[in-house]
Amino acid sequence: MIETDILIAGGGIAGMSAAARFAADGHQIVIVDPAPADIGEGSDLRTTAFLEPGIETLTKAGVWDAIKPTGAELRVMRIVDAGGETRTPRETADFDGAETKQGFFGWNVSNKAARVALMAKLAQLDNVDFRFSTTVTGFKNTARFADVTLSDDKSDDESDDETIRAKLVIAADGRNSSLRDMAGIEHKRWAYDQSAIVFVVTHDKPHDNISTEIHRTGGPLTLVPMPDLDGKPCSSVVWMTPAKRADELNAMSNEALSAEITHDTMNLFGPLSVASPRAVWPMIAQVPSRLIAARLALIAEAAHVVPPIGAQGLNMSLHDIETLAELMAKAKLHNEDIGATALLKSYERRQLPKTLARVGGIDLLNRASMFEPKTLRDLRYVGLSALNRIGPLRKLAIKVGVGK
Ligand SMILES: Cc1cc2nc3c(=O)[nH]c(=O)nc-3n(C[C@H](O)[C@H](O)[C@H](O)COP(=O)(O)OP(=O)(O)OC[C@H]3O[C@@H](n4cnc5c(N)ncnc54)[C@H](O)[C@@H]3O)c2cc1C
Q1: Claim to verify: residue 157 and residue 199 sit in the same structural domain
Q2: Residue nearest atom 33 of ligand 1, based on CA coordinates
Q3: Is there a single domain that holds both residue 80 and residue 183?
Q4: Which atom of ligand 1 is nearest to the CA of 51?
Q5: CA dist., res. 112 & res. 376, Å (int)
């Protein structure tokens, strides 16, 4: 039987980031994913706004220098309230990255580019064994180790299944995590009758590296800077609306969708042109009852799902990874067990309260962004005005915005 320090289930962006970060500290890693080896950049149309301190984690993982040039810097986060009688901006709050400790908010990168950079990094590492077309189908944990059964998805023969013994198993297998179920960890999920439609647009006016979140009704419409496309300013769009409206938008021709988003962005960018396929994501939030079981830690979407407000999802995942990396580095230094119950309990103590607070906070913000009645929209406007004008509140918003 093959033995390893860490087995990571899930080779999404979070699982691969975890593999690179833990490998940088000298741990032996096996990472598995059902996707085939030739998946390349994959089909994920989303982009990720990488914020500090997540960038620091990717730097320690030795991959940020490859990811950064593929993205666009985010210098300013702009929130626009347009929830008045007419479709015009009535309050605009700018949060400048120069006001943060590190002097910037982050970088917006396509998930495809991040994926390519991470796969290239892992391929260079002798202490990472990436198994493609491989699914975790069994998990048996004891106090001393965990045995994980892997099925070879290229073979129909069950005798090709393999068991790997690990000191620690990381569940990075996404929102429907089967490892979480195998370990008997319950979770709570709620839906919003709201979807996000994502695509890329080009526009006439430059974005000036400003990320713009427009609030009217139904959810925020966010345009996040991207590098120029065919010589034109370009942004990625995350448009959160009632689910029915997202389906209607998705059914439109490129011309009709371009006209619709030009109207809803109130000419802030000039005419917009849809420049990519689209994807629709039903909005849910999810939290587990625990983050750990014997020899197992949940990270990323196995541990938390939030609507894409304030670019928190993957950034929270990078925080999970950094916390585990720090705890394991300390254990390794003292020749202690990296999968010990005491270490895992420290992980849960540090991450679970933060996870619950952040999921709860984003839930509140999302419900506020969905307000339809005028009185509630006015209340949201008063809140944004206060955030914009009251110094300590502004500072807090900036701190939360960078994921601290
Ligand atoms: C519209 C939208 C915009 C977003 N924008 C941002 C943003 O700007 N910033 C940000 O921080 N976050 C953002 N997020 C969140 C972020 O995209 C997700 O948190 C992140 O991509 C999820 O990554 P993951 O690796 O946890 O999950 P996934 O990408 O779902 O990866 C899970 C992997 O596990 C594998 N798997 C499944 N079952 C098994 C098994 N049994 N064995 C082995 N492997 C298995 C799957 O094949 C998959 O590759 C956004 C989300 C949405 C919906």
Answers
A1: no
A2: 10
A3: no
A4: 11
A5: 38
| pTM exceeds 0.85, yes or no | yes
Alpha-carbon distance of 277 to 41, in angstroms, equals 15
What gap in Å lies between CA 7 and CA 123, rounded to an integer?
Answer: 16
CA distance 302 to 177: 5
Q: Tell me how far apart the alpha carbons of residues 65 and 288 are, in angstroms, rounded to a whole number.
A: 34
**Band of residue 344 on the pLDDT scale cut at 50, 70, 90:** very high
In a domain, 349, yes or no: yes
The rounded Å distance from CA 137 to ligand 1 centre is: 19
Q: Which residues pair with 215 in a beta bridge?
A: 81
With CA atoms as reference, report the closest residue to 355 among 268, 269, 297, 282.
297
Structure tokens at 34: 């059902």
In 3-state terms, the chain is what percent helix, strand and coil (to 5)? 40, 30, 30
List of E strands, 289-396 = 292-293, 296-298
Count the domains in the chain.
2
106 lines ligand 1 (CB under 6 A): no
Ligand 1 centroid from CA 268, angstroms: 31
Would you give the DSSP letter of residue 158? G
The mean predicted confidence, pLDDT, of the chain is 91
